[in-house]
Amino acid sequence: MDVAALRLQLDLQLFAGEKTEDATPKKKQDARKQGQVAKSMELPAAFILFFSFLAFYLFGGFMKGHLVGVFRSIYTDFLLVDLTSPNMMVLYEQLALQMLLILSPIFVIAVVIAVLGNYLQFGFLLTGDPLMMKFSKMNPLEGAKRMFSMRSVVEFLKSMLKMSIIGYVVYSVLWGEKAHIMQLAHLPLQEILTFTSSLVLNLGVKIGGILIILAIFDFLYQKYEHEKNLRMSKQDIKDEYKKSEGDPLIKGKIREKQRRMAMQRMMQDVPKADVIITNPTHFAVALQYDGSKMQAPTVIAKGTDFVALKIRQVAKDHGVATIENKPLARALYAQVEIGEAIPADMFQAVAEVLAYVYKLKGKAL
Questions:
Q1: Which domain holds residue 321?
Q2: Which of 120, 205, 215, 253 has the most CB atoms lying inside 10 A of its own CB?
Q3: Statement: residue 214 has pLDDT above 50
């Protein structure tokens, strides 16, 4: 082999080790079982923030009514009661129940949106593999690599971009309301609370919407990184195929061994035959007929060339009659498999051969 050919072979081997191929379905399925899926932790958080503030818009009247009822109950029903343990327990139980009722819409929406936000990313997935303790995660060198990796840089830049955008939105909204903010000192407490709550809800919905947009881009980035990490080399794909389908070399050896075992079993059945019908040299078919057990003569062995020669040799050694009938030998070999009875259209021809053989042996058909 010259130097150029050797260099080309080495280059191809190096190229085979590069992870340039998309992950196979099996690789993706195995990664999913281990909890490795494309997901953005910011997407559910952004959905929760947006829909929680939106819930204040939808259920604000309900929450305000119950909150006013709580204060009214405190000042009308419990202001003059005796400070005893039973009275305080009743008060705390009612306050806890009312606060739970007030906050229940937010809690329900947060839980539903959190589940839905993850389901939209990777569907239903239930696995305990990420919860298992792995000592590799406690390796300080691996931790340092993750800390100073390109992924950490991207996360830092993403956080800075997010904070800059949120800061600009907050500044622009507050700057736009500066005239109202400067007049708050001259307004009644109720109007101050109304304006402040409206301003906070406005900021919350806007920030939540912006975070959702950023989270969608983050999800696309995470999906790209996930697929990139799952990429395989050509050699990886070959190895996976060998593991799933079996090494072709080993499978070939198994098939060869199976053929030899089948050949041995077939040759062991040749002495049981009543007659061997030959071509005379290219084909050999062994027939057996037992009137008490079989409805028709059955092929128990057949072969061509070397196998046919082996069948004739075994038949000769065990005194099995050999009859030359070229058309019949070809037809039996082509149409009847080992262990099958001959078809009806061959009954006449086979019966004549068996009758001749039995006549030679002095047996009755």
A1: 262-361
A2: 215
A3: yes
